[in-house]
Amino acid sequence: MQGQKSFDELQKMIRQFVDERDWNQFHNPKDLSISMSLEAAEVLEHFQWKNDEEMAEYIKTHKEDIGEELADVLYWVLLLANKIDTDLSEAFQKKMQKNAAKYPIEKAKGNHKKYTEHAA
């Protein structure tokens, strides 16, 4: 296995993979988004109809399968970000700053409510 890769390196791998197959012509934001959503649904299938105990056991015995589905989701996320020229590292950091403002520790710690439900 190769070492850890940055978002930039992963996006370069995807661009090369797609370019070698001449698939860019088929990729538009709508279809990439649909593909991402479909792959996310495949992640959900692993957990559908399982209680907490069943899920814990299932994860132990199917970790690689679930990881492959998560990698498929990441593939489409990276491909869409590349297509619309979005720096995911930068976008993620900005989003985490917004999340920190919406969910300050003193209001959100141990609380699963949405930020709009927090007392002012």
Summarize the structure.
With 120 residues, the protein is mostly helical.
Could you please describe the fold and organization of this structure?
The protein has 120 residues and is mostly helical. The chain folds into two domains: 1-86, Orthogonal Bundle (Helix Hairpins), CATH 1.10.287.1080; 87-120, no CATH class. It has five helices and no strands. It is globular, with a radius of gyration of 18 Å. The mean pLDDT is 93.
The percent of residues in helical segments reads 55-70%
Tally of helical runs: 5
CATH class wording of the largest domain: Mainly Alpha
Overall 3D form:
globular
Beta content comes to under 5%
Structural class: mainly alpha
Whole-number average pLDDT? 93
Largest beta-sheet details: none
Q: What is the number of independent domains?
A: 2
SSE topology:
Layout: H1 7-21, H2 29-45, H3 52-83, H4 88-102, H5 105-108
Helix pairs in contact: 1-3, 2-3
What attributes characterize this protein structure?
single chain; 120 residues; mainly alpha; Helix Hairpins; 2 domains; 69% helix
